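Q: Focus on the shape:
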Amino acid sequence: MLNNKKVLMLISLLVAIGLWLFVMGNVDPTMDERFSGISVEMEGTGDLADQGLKATLSKPKMVAVTLEGKRSQIKKVKAKGIKAFIDVSTCDYGKNEAEIHISLPDGVTGVTVEDISSETATFMVR
């Protein structure tokens, strides 16, 4: 029976699948995943409004984010749950540039931001 090539191939395939299931289920390997099409929002616009100012992006800013973490945690993240934002509360009149910050959904732990396609956003305050 073990001399038959088809039987050996089937046994090899079953062992490989079993090992893969063990690693994915028990070891929880680290992985990277890229999420794109995340819209950058402005926070702190109320503080500017108190001063009679308004911040505007020249066009909607979209970024892509690469996250790194355990597979079980990365799989909890959906692109719409990632928030990209800039803080405009302390900006001055005219052209400004601010760092883009990323926040992840509640309940996601041990996941870090590996890369952002654009680290800053330029906007006008008038």
The first helix runs from residue 5 to 27. The radius of gyration is 23 Å. The chain has one domain: 29-125. The mean pLDDT is 92.
